[in-house]
Amino acid sequence: WADGPAYVTQCPIQTGQSYVYDFTVTGQRGTLWWHAHISWLRATVYGAIVILPKHGVPYPFPPPHEEVPVVLGEWWRADTEAVVRQALRTGGAPNISDAFTINGLPGPLYNCSAKDTFKLKVEPGKTYMLRLVNAALNDELFFSVANHTLTVVEVDAVYVKPFTVKTLIISPGQTTNVLLTAKPFYPKANFYMLAAPYSTIRPGTFDNTTVAGILEYQKPGSPSMSSFDKDLPLFKPVLPRFNDTGFVTNFTSKLRSLATPQYPAAVPRSVDKRFFFTVGLGTLPCPANTTCQGPTNKTQFAAAMNNVSLVLPSTALLQSHFTGVSRGVYGSNFPVTPLLKFNYTGAPPNNTNVAKGTKLLVLPFNASVELVMQDTSILGFESHPLHLHGFNFFVVGQGFGNYDAVNDPAKFNLVDPVERNTVGVPAGGWVAIRFLADNPGT
């Protein structure tokens, strides 16, 4: 039951050493992914995991002609370890990436990279399932294919009620399976597939570039791997604006579990434990006699939940718990609500400092848990992707402004909420999830 996060479930694999991970897939099928889980090694160390249904069990939709992994990534011209070390040393934001990639290729919209373009060749009238993975470090991404529609059938390895869009949004760590049906005839054209970032934080910089792949049709009577015809018209989709929160909200609101006898939505109807976490950026003071590159030259950026910024322990948390030696390693006193309440989406408070600590929240086995995560405006609104290791959860509600514990629960979807393992906390808003704490570990 090790799942990878350095110093949490286990110590990291040392340089020159190896680690054999022997695990059994039970009760899952769909698209997941694997990746490094220390520092910024995930920038390049990742890949897709495809779990097929059991033999004889069909998809709950017409079977596609072909299935294609489409892994979206992020690329720096510099050593990513040097990038993150500089950010930690200066207290400033990390330098932004130089390009996005599709299956490791940046595509023709960047300088000198046209030869490194992902091309998907399709046959007229055939349906293809694209297994999308967002492996980018820092950016939620819009994705679209010119003059084609995408039918969403699965997210995070869980089937959903199918719906059709021209563009989708996918957060870092999320997966989305879509069906793309090729035109019934040879269109005498090629079509860009594009991915570009969604970003709301201001002030702040981000990699506002676009990665392109190309969808091309097999010519009638030609070999399936015939060369790309650059003389054909090349159509480009229109993506939403980089800060189009309305589009993101509309898309995520369409996600619903199948909630059928074969694929039920086992959302907890009653709740044993309720928690409220604020999520956002705050500040820490600079070390003595130093100048920082945070919001001021005397402060550094610090991510925090309920005003606590994580300090990684020197001993793996599970090892400390197992041996009963937790003193000096961690405390089981993570606040279940903010210690200081304020208008989370209003004017920022005067004091933006956060505390540092290695604090845990201990759950009773098999407890049903409701967690509300609230974005804050302390250093600007931002959509925060959150992943829960070891569990799927149900997204029972979300909204904008401050969460209202009296009135908002009445609007929760407890019938067919989407089930997933990664969710974006809306910029300037909140999201509520429910899950069953039935997987011991950290």
UniProtKB/TrEMBL annotation:
Q: Name one GO molecular function term.
A: copper ion binding
* Swiss-Prot/TrEMBL keywords: Apoplast, Copper, Lignin degradation, Metal-binding, Oxidoreductase, Repeat, Secreted
Cellular location(s): Secreted, Extracellular space, Apoplast
Q: What is the catalytic activity of this protein?
A: 4 hydroquinone + O2 = 4 benzosemiquinone + 2 H2O
- What does the Swiss-Prot or TrEMBL cofactor note state? Binds 4 Cu cations per monomer.
* InterPro entries the UniProt entry points to: Cu-oxidase-like_N (IPR011707), Cu-oxidase_2nd (IPR001117), Cu-oxidase_C (IPR011706), Cu-oxidase_fam (IPR045087), Cupredoxin (IPR008972), CuRO_2_LCC (IPR034285), Laccase (IPR017761)
Which family, according to the similarity comment? Belongs to the multicopper oxidase family.
Protein name in the entry: Laccase
Originating species = Aegilops tauschii subsp. strangulata
